[in-house]
Design goal:
Layout: E1 5-10, H1 16-27, E2 32-38, E3 41-48, H2 55-78, H3 104-125
Antiparallel strand pairs: 1-3, 2-3
């Protein structure tokens, strides 16, 4: 197996989905990319048997990333979901909304108080 090289590039102007999709196109099937923080700066760690992305390739990824963000923004602005459910009949339906006062912890505390009152009332009767 040949040796692998690792390169880090900053995330500035690069959409995660775009670089993940385009990387093997530019660097071959053995190339991988993952999010990585270097000296406090977020970016991408690229592992490849050859050289890293060229300036032109990075520019292309940045252009495609901008298009992706614009497409996502347009979808949000139009109010339509950016991702269509594969099973629209299985869309979750809200059955109840639990307020903070109805939380399980509060109900448990309320039961404890009621149990204490019941014991106290029972002692008084005896």
């Amino acid at each position: 197996m040949s040796s692998m090289n690792r390169y880090w590039i900053p995330h500035l102007d690069i959409h995660n989905k775009v670089i993940t999709h385009e990387l093997q196109y530019y660097l071959g099937p053995d190339a991988t990319v993952r999010s990585f923080t270097r000296e406090g700066e977020d970016g991408f760690l690229i592992t490849t048997p050859g050289g890293c992305l060229t300036d032109e390739q990075i520019d292309d990824i940045c252009v495609k990333s901008k298009e992706m963000w614009e497409k996502q923004a347009a979808a949000r602005a139009s109010g339509s979901p950016s991702k269509v459910l594969k099973r629209p009949l299985h869309q979750p339906v809200v059955m109840a909304t639990v307020s903070a006062s109805d939380s399980p912890r509060r109900r448990k505390e309320g039961r404890r108080r009621n149990e204490s009152r019941s014991r106290r009332d029972e002692r008084r009767r005896n």
